[in-house]
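JOB MANIFEST
job_type = single_chain_structure
chain_count = 1
residues = 646
[input]
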Amino acid sequence: MPSRNVENRDRGRREWVGGRFCPPLHVMEGGPYRPQIAMWLELPELLVVACHVEDPKEQTTFAQTLREAMRRPLAGPPRRPGRVRVADALQAAELRAAMPDLEVAVAPTPELELLGRDLAEHLLESTPEKDTESYLEGGRIPAPAVARLFEAARLLYVVAPWKTASDDQILRVDIPQLGIEGACLSIIGALGQNLGFILFPSLEGFEAFQQLCQKEPKAEGPLDLGTTILSLNFERGADLPPSMRREVAEHGWQVAGPRACPRIDHLERDGLRRPLTEHDLRVVSAVATSLGALFVKHGSLARAEADPICESWAGNDGLTVRFTAPYDAAHHFAENAPRPVAASPKVGRNQPCPCGSGKKYKKCCLPASEAQAATPSPAPVHERDQDLVAQMRRYAKRRFGEAWARAASDFADAAQSVQLFGPWSVYVFEVEGRPIVGWFLEECGARLNAAEREWLFAQQRAWLSVWEVLAVEPGKSVTMRDLLSGEQRRVHEVRGSAVLVARDAILGRVVDHQGISVFCGIYPRPLPPFEAAEVLRRARSKLRRQSAVPVEKLRQEPFGRFLIARWEEAVEEMDARTSAHHSCATQMAKSCSSPRTTSPSSPVCAPRWKHVYARSRGRSLRRRAARTASRSCDRETRCTRTGRTP
């Protein structure tokens, strides 16, 4: 009995590692969707204490999965961890809010990532291979929808827009009836290979995919396309799977030639093929039909001197497709203006409050409503900034090419730091003596409206610095102080205010515009006070100033580059210390839990061969954990694999 109590106390001091991930599977019940798995591991044994397959209809919170793991773990008695570690700052904030007395650390979780990969491999190996490729998707898509796809694809193949359009020419696509707004279409096939088009959900998705294509492929590690992709490709009939060739023959679907068989792919962000739906076929069919008509009318659409166009095409299926070319010209046409939101009915001061409290409106929610109405919203400026940054990035790529592309060298990983890299590359990074925003205003400012020019001027007045969190109003704002210049701002920030805590330090740019302050460029990793103090010490040494630094010095590009380099060094050193701490703690736990030698003079820790034995068992432990998690997944839901990651 005493030994069991000691064991339970030891379990209560152990660290749990948790997180969410999506296995390479789709649940077919109620429509294809990717299940999300919340998993908790107990170290150092890599013991799976919870593996919860989340139903999107239930909206299970991450904190609820931890509470359930403590109440009913998959192995061992109910218990509470001494500390938990997660990789996502938002998940950590949720856990701290739900369980304030629990120690929560934000740090990499390689144990969970490794187990997730093992679990995915186990699920893939345990699922039998089937010839499931079908235009009809096992009966979920009606044959008339596929017939319309073949007819639209046949017309598009005859028009062949890829003969006059280049791969970097993009169009904006809107289909209001199907919920498509601001999609980005890229025509492929200029080199005579992979004919068709790719439809991205947004311009940002296209740019993320373009950045991935310009990088060297990773030898290992997860694939990240940066966005989901819906594409139409034309293939040889002989290259189609036998099951799809049989369907074409049975239904008599006509194609324009032996190399003109349409094939739709809908890829997840990690490259997994998503099962197609009738909605996907309606989108592709409508775009293919309208795109062919657009190029019949505007055969010279690809010419640089062509005027911007915005035209709508209505099909026989009742769908209206609107094309805007080039994508940057969307704001010049009233058709692309945001639809006004219907105003809520006005409530009288003496009427009952709509919240249901039973009080009069003036005594209940009216003061909060008036305060909210008086506070300007930062959402419009963020949307305007995203549009302008995208325009300036394309302008810089055309105008300066490789000279501007060197902005990525200021970051260890520009893709991971895109929140700061995007604004840095156009507002701070200098080409031929000045930032891109200066060149853009000089050469393209005439076609901007007054609000856009005013915003760019506000961006030119901003600076990059180290900001300390003084106070947080969750969901609304963060009060910040610049630790170099001494300036103080109340920054309107919804997402950041849910994650940041007092005394955190961030590297970012704060823009003052029309009475409000907003973040426009933040390094994704904040620093605690000790690490931030070291960055500040080195920054002041660089500037040779111990007093307040003039903001003019902080706007200079060389100093901004220096700050980024020192911040990334501090983050790397902090991660190295955290990793070393976890490794040491794990080894000590393994050593002290191993049987000791019989000699009274033996050391406290177990002999060296015990460490070697523990390392050799690592793979078998992960396999056992993967099998346990797999059985738990099977109990909660039935998953159907649709394909491997390409």
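[summary]
Confidence is low (pLDDT under 50) at residues 1-8, 592-620, 635-646.
The chain has 19 helices and 19 strands.
exit_status = 0
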